[in-house]
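FIELD: query
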Amino acid sequence: MRDTDPAPESDRLGDHPHPRETAILLGQSDAEQSLLDAFMSGRMHHAWLLTGPKGIGKATLAYRMARFVLRHGSPEVAAAAGATNLQTPMDHPVFRQVAAGSHPNILSLRRPWDEKAKRFKTVLTVDEVRRTTGFFGMSAGAGGWRIGIIDAADDMNVNSENALLKILEEPPPQSLFFVVAHQPGRLLPTIRSRCRTLRMTPLAAEDVAAVLDASNNVKANEADRLAMARLSEGSVGRALAINDGGGLDLYRDIVALLMELPRLNIKNLHKLADKIARRGADDAWTTGIDLLGDWLQRLVRTGAGAPHQPEFVNGEAASMVRLAQSASLDRWVEVWEKISQLVARAEALNTDRKIVVLNIFSMLESVAGSHAGQHQSA
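FIELD: result
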């Protein structure tokens, strides 16, 4: 990165449009209507906690509402303009300013870029949150609104949360906060109590697939777009990450190996490990590990009696039932937790990723073969 380049943004997914640049929000009409009704009633709450799984449009909705408020300023102006949704035309000056990140009445808080270390800081720091003091203390421009968007609150530590709590406790006039949280239960109860919670739900697979188009640099065919949408479990962000990381092919390779448990094809295992763990393949690594975790979650749900999801590889459903019965549910939950710990420790210690992949499949092989081993010893 050159010195003249803008700093990377932790709330941007790859090369895809940032939520502030996104004009269309699919599948969240109920949440959008709730915000519109609150504003038009003249009783707009000063702080909103937008919750739900990652990648379903929470930040996109926050910026969409911010543009609407900055464009109209008051319910009377919005009503006179005939507003029936939160849409702001892309050629409107407010849209262009917000998209460029240059609107003076919006403050975006996220994990900052550490220029010295050339990476994002691990938390949304207290210094970032304290920027709200000066921002909300200044005079607002046209419309009189000042809007803070926190993406994501999950990244805050205790000090950051306490700094946010102070501004939420004494909100300035015509101030709005949109607090994006994927796991709101981890936030301080006092923060949650000062916000109005707006719960957003995963999108339908068809809505996710509709976003996987040329505008997001997705070149997959219709069947593959729908498969990625289903794998994403209703998250546009995850679907785009799966596309960027070659996730559909990775998932098929992973499942092909898993279907052979309790035996492993060592040659194919090493091919998969090389693909995921090669230097510079960060997207493939993240996507592959996430998809393996998803598969284990589905295995546990299958063992608990939940209906199986649509299969992406022929015979996947039957194989998952067989494996769920090959060991106790507790053993599968235990190995899932151990794999999560192994990956976290490997990232912290910069362990050889190929060794991590081989160890993961060795653990799975051991659990899948435990039932057969018990029968043999009996």
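FIELD: remark
The CA atoms of residues 48 and 196 lie 5 Å apart.
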